Amino acid sequence: MAHDKWMARALTLAEQAAEQGEVPVGAVLVRDNQVLGEGFNQSITLSDPSAHAEMQAIRQAGKTVKNYRFPGATLYVTLEPCPMCAGLLVHSRIEQLVFGASDPRTGACGSVMDLAQHPALNHRYQVVSGVMEQECGEILKRFFRLRREQQKARKSC
C-alpha cells in the first residue's frame, strides 16, 4: 500500500529526529508519487518553536516547487498535527493528510479539535489516521521513556 511506503519514510525521518534529541516526528510531502519535501522535528536544534516536522517538509517543498501551495499533495506524518501545523496545511492547500499516531493532548485533526474540516476555514483536506499507528506510537513512547529515565538518573546523582 502506498500509504505504508511513505509512512515508513516518515518513520525513518522520525528516527533522525530522535538521534538528535528531538521529539521523534517525521513528515513527507508527496504529489504524483514524487517527494516534494520532507523533514523532522528540529525545534530544539534550531531554537525555533515552529520547526516541527510538517513545517520543515512544507518549507522544503516550497523551495522545491517555488510555490507555497500544494494542490493534489499528500502529507505523511508520524504524529497527528498540532493546531499550528494543521493551520499550515490549510494555508498550503494540501489535498490529504495521512498520520500515524493520534495526539490526545494537542491533536488538531480529529483528536482534540478538527481544523482539517473546520467549516469556517477556506480550505479543507482529507484525513486518514492510524497508518502504521503502532510503529509511530512506539517510537514516541520509547523516546519519552528514555527521556524520563535520563531525568531520573540526573536527579539521583
Global Rg: 15 Å
Query: What general form does the structure show?
Result: globular
In which range does the helix fraction lie? 40-55%
The named CATH superfamily: Cytidine Deaminase, domain 2
Number of domains: 1
The largest sheet, given as strand count, sense and whether it forms a barrel, is: 5 strands, mixed
Q: How far apart are the first and last residues' alpha carbons, in Å? A: 49 Å
- Return the CATH topology: Cytidine Deaminase, domain 2
Unreliable parts: none
Number of strands: 5
Q: Could you say which structural class the secondary elements and strand pairing correspond to?
A: alpha/beta
Query: Which architecture name does CATH use?
Result: 3-Layer(aba) Sandwich
State which percent range the strand residues make up: 15-25%
The succession of helices and strands, N to C, reads HEEHHEHEEH
* Count of separate DSSP helical elements: 5
Highest-level CATH class? Alpha Beta
Describe this structure in words.
With 157 residues, the protein is α/β, with parallel strands linked by helices. It is built from 5 helices and 5 strands, in the order H-E-E-H-H-E-H-E-E-H. Strands 2-1-3-4-5 form a 5-stranded mixed beta sheet. A hairpin with a 2-residue loop joins strand 1 and strand 2. The longest helix is centred in the C-terminal third of the chain and has 24 residues, at 133-156. The N and C termini lie far apart (49 Å).
